[in-house]
Amino acid sequence: LAVVVLAGCVPGARVEAPSDAPLVPSPAAPPSLASRCGPKPFGAEQPEDAWKRFEVTAAQLEVINRRLLRVLCGQGLWRKGVGFGAGYDPDRETEFVMIHPGFSGLTARQILDRFLGR
């Protein structure tokens, strides 16, 4: 079980994960989008139990990866404390995403729908 939490919407941001965990590649941010994003504001995190897990297909994960920065940064969700992680569960042989709604006023499912372009 591996989760990669997006460290920020700025170039060169660090991604923290266990050293033995396989990382899901993240798309590079276009310069104009990355310049609009900054660090999350202090206190933007909510309790850990706010994280929701969704199993996704490989095709859905590709769509999410393409839209990730556009949704998090372009829609201002990163600054509202929204968190994202992705991983692979070898026991179930499935890919999954973890979403934290932060103070966005949206549910984790609504954020997933935005990532999927719904």
Explain what this protein looks like in three dimensions:
The protein is of the alpha+beta class and 118 residues long. Helices cover 25% and strands 18% of the residues. The chain is built from 3 helices and 4 strands. A 4-stranded antiparallel sheet has the order 1-3-4-2. Helix 2 (58-72) packs across helix 3 (108-115). The protein is globular and about 35 Å long. The termini are far apart. Residues 1-8 and 10-34 have low confidence and may be disordered.
Provide tags for this entry.
disordered N terminus; alpha+beta; globular; 3 helices
Uncertain runs:
1-8, 10-34
Overall pLDDT, averaged? 74
Biggest sheet overview: 4 strands, antiparallel
Order of helix and strand elements from N to C terminus: EHEHEEH
Number of strand elements:
4
Q: Helical residue percent?
A: 10-25%
Q: How large is the count of helical segments?
A: 3
Shape: globular
Radius of gyration: 13 Å
Q: For the largest sheet, list the strands in their spatial order.
A: 1-3-4-2
Strand content: 15-25%
Judged by helices, strands and strand pairing, the structural class is alpha+beta
Cα separation of the termini:
27 Å
Summary?
With 118 residues, the chain is α+β, with helices and mostly antiparallel strands. It has helices at residues 31-36, 58-72, 108-115, and strands at residues 4-5, 52-56, 83-89, 94-100. Strand 3 and strand 4 (94-100) form a beta hairpin.
